[in-house]
Protein backbone atom coordinates (compact mmCIF):
# COMPACT_ATOMS: atom_id res chain seq x y z
CA UNK A 1 0.00 0.00 0.00
CA UNK A 2 1.17 3.53 -0.70
CA UNK A 3 2.50 5.07 2.55
CA UNK A 4 1.44 8.55 1.43
CA UNK A 5 -2.17 7.38 1.63
CA UNK A 6 -1.67 6.64 5.29
CA UNK A 7 -0.73 10.16 6.31
CA UNK A 8 -2.64 11.76 9.15
CA UNK A 9 -5.74 13.77 8.42
CA UNK A 10 -7.64 15.86 10.97
CA UNK A 11 -11.31 15.48 11.81
CA UNK A 12 -11.98 18.80 10.12
CA UNK A 13 -10.37 17.48 6.93
CA UNK A 14 -12.42 14.30 7.11
CA UNK A 15 -15.64 16.26 7.60
CA UNK A 16 -14.77 18.62 4.73
CA UNK A 17 -13.94 15.71 2.42
CA UNK A 18 -17.20 13.92 3.25
CA UNK A 19 -19.14 17.12 2.54
CA UNK A 20 -17.61 17.33 -0.92
CA UNK A 21 -18.52 13.75 -1.85
CA UNK A 22 -20.98 13.10 -4.61
CA UNK A 23 -24.25 12.07 -2.98
CA UNK A 24 -24.15 8.82 -4.96
CA UNK A 25 -20.82 7.78 -3.38
CA UNK A 26 -20.51 5.66 -0.24
CA UNK A 27 -18.37 7.37 2.39
CA UNK A 28 -18.38 4.15 4.45
CA UNK A 29 -16.86 2.17 1.60
CA UNK A 30 -14.29 4.90 1.00
CA UNK A 31 -13.27 4.91 4.65
CA UNK A 32 -12.91 1.13 4.64
CA UNK A 33 -10.55 1.31 1.67
CA UNK A 34 -8.66 4.20 3.28
CA UNK A 35 -8.05 1.97 6.32
CA UNK A 36 -6.40 -0.60 4.08
CA UNK A 37 -4.32 2.18 2.54
CA UNK A 38 -2.98 3.17 5.97
CA UNK A 39 -0.73 0.10 5.88
CA UNK A 40 2.59 0.07 4.05
CA UNK A 41 5.89 -1.80 3.97
CA UNK A 42 7.09 0.39 6.85
CA UNK A 43 3.75 0.32 8.72
CA UNK A 44 2.78 -3.34 8.61
CA UNK A 45 1.03 -3.42 11.99
CA UNK A 46 -1.34 -0.73 13.27
CA UNK A 47 -3.52 -0.46 16.35
CA UNK A 48 -7.12 0.68 16.33
CA UNK A 49 -6.04 3.91 18.04
CA UNK A 50 -3.31 4.59 15.47
CA UNK A 51 -5.68 4.02 12.55
CA UNK A 52 -8.23 6.33 14.20
CA UNK A 53 -5.57 9.02 14.63
CA UNK A 54 -4.42 8.77 11.03
CA UNK A 55 -7.95 8.77 9.68
CA UNK A 56 -9.22 11.56 11.94
CA UNK A 57 -12.12 9.34 13.01
CA UNK A 58 -13.51 8.21 16.35
CA UNK A 59 -12.26 4.88 17.67
CA UNK A 60 -15.72 3.21 17.71
CA UNK A 61 -16.14 4.07 14.03
CA UNK A 62 -12.74 2.62 13.16
CA UNK A 63 -13.42 -0.43 15.32
CA UNK A 64 -16.66 -1.11 13.42
CA UNK A 65 -14.93 -0.72 10.03
CA UNK A 66 -12.01 -2.93 11.03
CA UNK A 67 -14.39 -5.59 12.35
CA UNK A 68 -16.07 -5.64 8.93
CA UNK A 69 -12.72 -5.93 7.16
CA UNK A 70 -11.75 -8.75 9.52
CA UNK A 71 -15.00 -10.55 8.68
CA UNK A 72 -14.29 -10.19 4.95
CA UNK A 73 -10.78 -11.53 5.44
CA UNK A 74 -8.92 -8.38 4.36
CA UNK A 75 -7.48 -7.69 7.82
CA UNK A 76 -6.14 -10.05 10.46
CA UNK A 77 -5.49 -9.49 14.14
CA UNK A 78 -2.18 -10.07 15.89
CA UNK A 79 -1.73 -11.55 19.37
CA UNK A 80 -1.26 -7.99 20.64
CA UNK A 81 -4.66 -6.99 19.24
CA UNK A 82 -3.25 -4.85 16.44
CA UNK A 83 -4.20 -5.20 12.78
CA UNK A 84 -2.30 -6.42 9.72
CA UNK A 85 -3.30 -6.78 6.10
CA UNK A 86 -4.46 -10.32 5.33
CA UNK A 87 -3.29 -12.53 2.43
CA UNK A 88 -6.82 -12.60 1.02
CA UNK A 89 -6.13 -9.13 -0.40
CA UNK A 90 -3.84 -10.82 -2.92
CA UNK A 91 -6.85 -12.58 -4.41
CA UNK A 92 -8.02 -9.16 -5.62
CA UNK A 93 -4.79 -8.77 -7.59
CA UNK A 94 -5.16 -11.92 -9.63
CA UNK A 95 -8.12 -10.83 -11.83
CA UNK A 96 -6.23 -7.60 -12.61
CA UNK A 97 -2.96 -9.36 -13.48
CA UNK A 98 -4.85 -11.96 -15.53
CA UNK A 99 -5.85 -9.19 -17.95
CA UNK A 100 -2.14 -8.56 -18.65
CA UNK A 101 -0.83 -11.80 -20.23
CA UNK A 102 1.75 -9.68 -22.08
CA UNK A 103 3.63 -9.33 -18.76
CA UNK A 104 5.18 -12.76 -19.30
CA UNK A 105 6.34 -11.93 -22.83
CA UNK A 106 8.51 -9.02 -21.66
CA UNK A 107 10.37 -10.86 -18.90
CA UNK A 108 13.19 -11.90 -21.27
CA UNK A 109 14.02 -8.36 -22.45
CA UNK A 110 13.65 -7.09 -18.89
CA UNK A 111 16.21 -9.58 -17.61
CA UNK A 112 18.61 -8.61 -20.37
CA UNK A 113 18.34 -4.94 -19.44
CA UNK A 114 18.71 -5.70 -15.72
CA UNK A 115 21.86 -7.69 -16.41
CA UNK A 116 23.21 -4.98 -18.72
CA UNK A 117 23.07 -2.34 -15.97
CA UNK A 118 23.64 -4.79 -13.09
CA UNK A 119 20.43 -3.57 -11.51
CA UNK A 120 16.69 -4.16 -11.48
CA UNK A 121 14.11 -3.74 -14.22
CA UNK A 122 10.41 -3.11 -13.72
CA UNK A 123 7.36 -2.64 -15.90
CA UNK A 124 4.73 -0.21 -14.64
CA UNK A 125 1.28 1.01 -15.67
CA UNK A 126 -0.48 4.28 -14.88
CA UNK A 127 -3.05 4.27 -12.08
CA UNK A 128 -4.41 7.65 -11.03
CA UNK A 129 -1.57 9.91 -9.88
CA UNK A 130 0.80 6.93 -9.58
CA UNK A 131 2.40 4.08 -11.45
CA UNK A 132 2.07 0.47 -10.28
CA UNK A 133 4.66 -2.24 -10.90
CA UNK A 134 3.15 -5.22 -12.74
CA UNK A 135 6.37 -7.13 -13.56
CA UNK A 136 9.92 -7.06 -12.20
CA UNK A 137 13.26 -8.71 -12.94
CA UNK A 138 16.76 -8.72 -11.46
CA UNK A 139 17.87 -8.93 -7.85
CA UNK A 140 21.54 -7.99 -7.40
CA UNK A 141 23.16 -8.32 -3.95
CA UNK A 142 23.27 -5.23 -1.77
CA UNK A 143 20.25 -3.75 -3.52
CA UNK A 144 18.82 -0.75 -1.57
CA UNK A 145 15.31 -1.04 -3.06
CA UNK A 146 13.71 -4.15 -4.54
CA UNK A 147 10.67 -3.37 -6.70
CA UNK A 148 7.84 -5.88 -6.48
CA UNK A 149 4.51 -6.41 -8.20
CA UNK A 150 1.94 -4.07 -6.69
CA UNK A 151 4.38 -1.45 -5.47
CA UNK A 152 3.48 2.07 -6.55
CA UNK A 153 5.23 5.39 -6.95
CA UNK A 154 4.61 8.97 -8.10
CA UNK A 155 4.17 9.80 -11.76
CA UNK A 156 5.72 13.25 -11.34
CA UNK A 157 8.85 12.17 -9.44
CA UNK A 158 10.19 9.12 -11.27
CA UNK A 159 11.70 7.94 -14.54
CA UNK A 160 8.95 5.35 -14.88
CA UNK A 161 6.27 7.97 -14.23
CA UNK A 162 7.78 10.48 -16.66
CA UNK A 163 7.93 7.80 -19.33
CA UNK A 164 4.23 7.08 -18.84
CA UNK A 165 3.30 10.77 -18.90
CA UNK A 166 5.19 11.21 -22.17
CA UNK A 167 2.67 8.96 -23.95
CA UNK A 168 -0.38 11.07 -23.11
CA UNK A 169 -1.95 13.38 -25.66
CA UNK A 170 -1.75 17.11 -24.91
CA UNK A 171 -5.33 17.11 -23.62
CA UNK A 172 -4.87 14.02 -21.45
CA UNK A 173 -1.50 15.29 -20.21
CA UNK A 174 -3.01 18.60 -19.05
CA UNK A 175 -5.85 16.77 -17.30
CA UNK A 176 -3.43 14.40 -15.59
CA UNK A 177 -1.25 17.28 -14.38
CA UNK A 178 -4.30 18.95 -12.85
CA UNK A 179 -5.20 15.66 -11.16
CA UNK A 180 -1.69 15.37 -9.73
CA UNK A 181 -1.72 19.01 -8.60
CA UNK A 182 -5.00 18.49 -6.74
CA UNK A 183 -3.32 15.73 -4.73
CA UNK A 184 0.28 16.91 -4.40
CA UNK A 185 -0.01 20.69 -4.71
CA UNK A 186 3.27 22.55 -4.27
CA UNK A 187 5.30 19.35 -4.56
CA UNK A 188 4.24 19.12 -8.21
CA UNK A 189 5.03 22.76 -8.89
CA UNK A 190 8.53 22.39 -7.45
CA UNK A 191 9.30 19.25 -9.44
CA UNK A 192 7.57 20.31 -12.65
CA UNK A 193 10.64 21.73 -14.51
CA UNK A 194 12.53 18.43 -14.12
CA UNK A 195 9.42 16.42 -14.97
CA UNK A 196 8.63 18.37 -18.12
CA UNK A 197 12.23 18.18 -19.35
CA UNK A 198 12.16 14.39 -18.84
CA UNK A 199 8.79 14.04 -20.60
CA UNK A 200 10.13 16.05 -23.55
CA UNK A 201 13.24 13.87 -23.69
CA UNK A 202 11.14 10.69 -23.72
CA UNK A 203 9.17 12.05 -26.66
CA UNK A 204 12.32 13.06 -28.54
CA UNK A 205 14.82 10.32 -27.62
CA UNK A 206 12.69 7.50 -26.22
CA UNK A 207 14.12 7.56 -22.68
CA UNK A 208 14.84 9.73 -19.64
CA UNK A 209 17.09 9.48 -16.58
CA UNK A 210 16.28 10.24 -12.93
CA UNK A 211 19.02 11.01 -10.43
CA UNK A 212 17.37 10.26 -7.12
CA UNK A 213 14.17 12.19 -7.84
CA UNK A 214 11.94 9.51 -6.33
CA UNK A 215 14.35 7.52 -4.20
CA UNK A 216 17.54 9.47 -3.38
CA UNK A 217 19.62 6.29 -3.29
CA UNK A 218 18.80 5.30 -6.88
CA UNK A 219 19.59 6.36 -10.42
CA UNK A 220 17.05 5.11 -12.95
CA UNK A 221 16.44 5.23 -16.68
CA UNK A 222 12.91 4.92 -18.02
CA UNK A 223 11.39 4.43 -21.46
CA UNK A 224 7.79 4.48 -22.75
CA UNK A 225 6.62 1.17 -24.20
CA UNK A 226 3.11 2.03 -25.32
CA UNK A 227 -0.62 1.77 -24.73
CA UNK A 228 -2.41 -1.56 -24.68
CA UNK A 229 -5.67 -2.17 -26.52
CA UNK A 230 -7.60 -1.99 -23.26
CA UNK A 231 -6.13 1.42 -22.41
CA UNK A 232 -3.16 0.79 -20.11
CA UNK A 233 -0.13 3.04 -20.48
CA UNK A 234 2.98 0.89 -20.01
CA UNK A 235 6.62 1.86 -19.44
CA UNK A 236 9.87 0.23 -18.34
CA UNK A 237 12.51 1.47 -15.90
CA UNK A 238 15.88 0.12 -14.78
CA UNK A 239 17.71 1.33 -11.69
CA UNK A 240 21.03 0.92 -9.87
CA UNK A 241 22.30 2.19 -6.52
CA UNK A 242 23.43 5.78 -6.89
CA UNK A 243 26.87 5.14 -5.41
CA UNK A 244 27.85 3.02 -8.41
CA UNK A 245 25.90 4.77 -11.15
CA UNK A 246 27.92 6.43 -13.92
CA UNK A 247 25.99 9.30 -15.47
CA UNK A 248 27.80 9.10 -18.80
CA UNK A 249 26.87 5.41 -19.13
CA UNK A 250 23.18 6.09 -18.43
CA UNK A 251 23.03 9.12 -20.70
CA UNK A 252 24.97 7.86 -23.72
CA UNK A 253 24.87 4.07 -23.61
CA UNK A 254 22.25 2.45 -21.40
CA UNK A 255 19.48 5.00 -21.99
CA UNK A 256 19.48 4.57 -25.79
CA UNK A 257 19.68 0.78 -25.38
CA UNK A 258 16.64 0.88 -23.08
CA UNK A 259 14.76 2.91 -25.69
CA UNK A 260 15.66 0.25 -28.28
CA UNK A 261 14.42 -2.50 -25.94
CA UNK A 262 11.09 -0.66 -25.53
CA UNK A 263 10.83 -0.31 -29.31
CA UNK A 264 11.41 -4.06 -29.74
CA UNK A 265 8.60 -4.75 -27.27
CA UNK A 266 6.27 -2.71 -29.47
CA UNK A 267 7.00 -5.05 -32.38
CA UNK A 268 4.74 -7.61 -30.68
CA UNK A 269 1.77 -5.45 -31.67
CA UNK A 270 0.43 -5.36 -28.09
CA UNK A 271 1.69 -1.84 -27.41
CA UNK A 272 1.20 1.25 -29.53
CA UNK A 273 2.45 4.80 -29.22
CA UNK A 274 -0.22 7.40 -30.01
CA UNK A 275 2.48 9.75 -31.31
CA UNK A 276 5.61 8.22 -32.85
CA UNK A 277 8.90 9.35 -31.30
CA UNK A 278 10.44 12.30 -33.14
UniProtKB/TrEMBL annotation:
Compositionally biased spans, kind Basic and acidic residues: 1-14
Matches recorded under PROSITE patterns: HTH_ICLR, ICLR_ED
Coiled-coil stretches: none
GO biological process entries: negative regulation of DNA-templated transcription
Chain positions covered by the region annotation Disordered: 1-23
Boundaries of every HTH iclR-type domain copy: 26-87
Domain IclR-ED: from-to ranges: 88-271
Keywords for the protein's UniProt record, in alphabetical order: DNA-binding, Transcription, Transcription regulation
Pfam family, one: HTH_IclR
Molecular function GO terms recorded: DNA binding; DNA-binding transcription factor activity
Protein name per Swiss-Prot or TrEMBL: Helix-turn-helix domain-containing protein
Amino acid sequence: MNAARGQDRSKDQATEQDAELDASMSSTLMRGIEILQCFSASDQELSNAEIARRMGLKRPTVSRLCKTLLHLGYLRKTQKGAFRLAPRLLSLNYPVLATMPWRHNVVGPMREMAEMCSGNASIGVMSGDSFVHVQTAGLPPGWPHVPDIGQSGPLHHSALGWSILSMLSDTDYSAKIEEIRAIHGQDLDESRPVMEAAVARCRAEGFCVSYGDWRPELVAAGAPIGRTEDGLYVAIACAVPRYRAVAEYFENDFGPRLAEAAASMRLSGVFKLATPLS
